[in-house]
Amino acid sequence: MLKQYIEFFYPGSFVSESTIKEVKDREAPVTLPKGAYGYRYFSREEVKKGKEVLSGSAKYHSPMTYYGEALTLAQVKALTPTKDYSILVSNMEINKWPKVVRTVRGNFQPLNKGDKVLKP
Fold first, then answer.
1. For 54-97, what is each residue's pLDDT tens digit?
2. pLDDT tens per residue, range 22-36
């Protein structure tokens, strides 16, 4: 049986942390869990074999939905007088990221095609 899941993302020390919860459908959640900055959906095939549940790999990932604000390279460069964002600027230039999102938790994530940014 194909089951639907939502994965919530949280800032981590070096990479994002996440929690996963089974859902009935891919309707947007009413609220984010405390500390989360975004979410995405995915599907996974699960088969019950005796007392065991066998889970397949995650597939059919949705685009990310972030809570925060999208910023272009020029907008990030304009932030530099108040704080040093030179590493972020360099990452945007090297990786050719046209936009990033500054999430409600203050961290930055690259925006990929199809990703959505919602105001908190």
1. 999 999 999 999 999 999 999 999 987 778 899 999 999 999 99
2. 999 999 887 899 999
User: Of 82, 108, 105, which Cα lies nearest the Cα of 95?
Assistant: 108
DSSP characters for 59-96?
BSPPPPEEEEEEEEHHHHHHHTTTS--HHHHHHHHHHT
Please give the distance of CA 40 from its chain centroid, rounded to a whole number.
6
Residue 34: which of 5, 67, 62, 70 has the closest Cα?
67
Q: What is the 3-state secondary structure (H, E, C) of 4-61?
A: EEEEEEECCCCCCEEEEEEECCCCCCCCCCCCCCEEEEEEEEEEEECCEEEECCCECC
Residue ranges covered by each domain of the chain = 2-55, 67-118
Residue 15: phi and psi, rounded to 5, are -130, 165
- Helix, strand, coil shares of the chain, percent, nearest 5, are 15, 45, 40
Q: Which amino acid is at 55?
A: S
Please state whether the predicted TM-score (pTM) of the whole model is above 0.85. yes
